[in-house]
Amino acid sequence: MLQIHSFTFNPFQENTYLLINPGKQCWIVDPGMYNSDETEVITGFIRDNDLKPQAIINTHAHIDHILGVQALKERYLIPFMMHEKETPVLNGAAASAMMFGLPLSVVPQPDGFIRHDQPLLLGQEQLDVFLTPGHSPGSISFYYPADQWVIGGDVLFSGSIGRTDLPGGDYDTLINSIRTSLLPLPDDTQVFSGHGPATTIGREKQYNPFLS
Questions:
Q1: Residue 22: helix, strand or coil by DSSP?
Q2: 25-29 and 52-57 as β-strands: parallel, antiparallel, unpaired?
C-alpha cells in the first residue's frame, strides 16, 4: 500500500504530498516550498525515513505548486512530470511569481508528460490519472483505488471548488470535471486537496454548495 504524508508550505498554505511505497520509494506531489527552511522540512523527512525519491508529479503548474520543484530536481536528480496541457500555465510562472512577490529564480522544465489515460506505477503500486481541467487547462487528479483516496490539486476542496478566474480557467469545465471524474468515486473516497483539510466524496456530494 502507498502511504501518504502531507506538508503545508508557502504563503498560500499549499499542500505538498509524499507518496511512499513499501520499498521506501517515493513520489513528491506539488512541491510548494518557497525558502530553504521549508525545503529542509521535506528533505529532512526524506532523509530521516531513508526514502528514495523517484519523481516529482504535479497536479498542475500554478506558482504555489511549483516553487519547490527546481530544488528537489537538483538535489535528487529526479524528473519533473505534469500534463502536457499545463505547459502554458508553467510558461507563465515567472510573471506570476513577480506579481505575487515570490522567489522563483528558475522556472522548472518538465522532463516528460503524464498521460491521463495511462496509470502511473511506483513499484507495484498504481495511481490512476484523471484529466480534470477547469481550474487550469491541464489539471490532473491522482486516484489510488487500493486505498480509495484521490489527490485532486485545486479542483475540489472541502466545501468549495477551485477558482476559475485565472488564465485557462473555466467554471463550467471545472464543474463537469468534478461531476464526471470525481463524484462517481465511492462516497468514502478521501479527497486530498491542494489547500485546506481533506474531505470525502460523500461529504462533498451532500454539503458542497457548488455541487448541489
A1: coil
A2: parallel
Q: Are 134 and 153 in contact (CB under 8 A)?
A: no
- CA dihedral sign of residues 68, 93, 178, 207: positive
Most distant CA atoms of the chain, gap in Å: 45
Q: Model-level pTM?
A: 0.96
For helices 69-76 and 36-48, what crossing angle results, to 10°? 40
At residue 137, the 3 state secondary structure works out as coil
Helix (H) or strand (E) holding 94: helix 93-100
Contact predicate 204/191, CB 8 Å: yes
**For residue range 105-151, what is the model confidence (pLDDT) as tens digits?**
889 999 999 999 899 999 999 999 999 999 999 999 999 999 999 99
Write out the H or E segment, with its range, that includes residue 199: strand 199-200
Please provide residue 193's backbone torsions phi and psi, each rounded to the nearest 5 degrees: -95, 170
Answer yes or no: are the C-beta atoms of 12 and 97 closer than 8 Å.
no
What is the per-residue pLDDT across 8-48, written as a single tens digit (0 to 9) for each? 999 999 999 999 999 999 999 999 999 999 999 999 999 99
Rounded Cα distance between 18 and 43, Å, is: 11
The set of cell numbers assigned to 64 is 504555489
- What span, in angstroms and rounded, lies between the C-alpha atoms of 86 and 54? 21
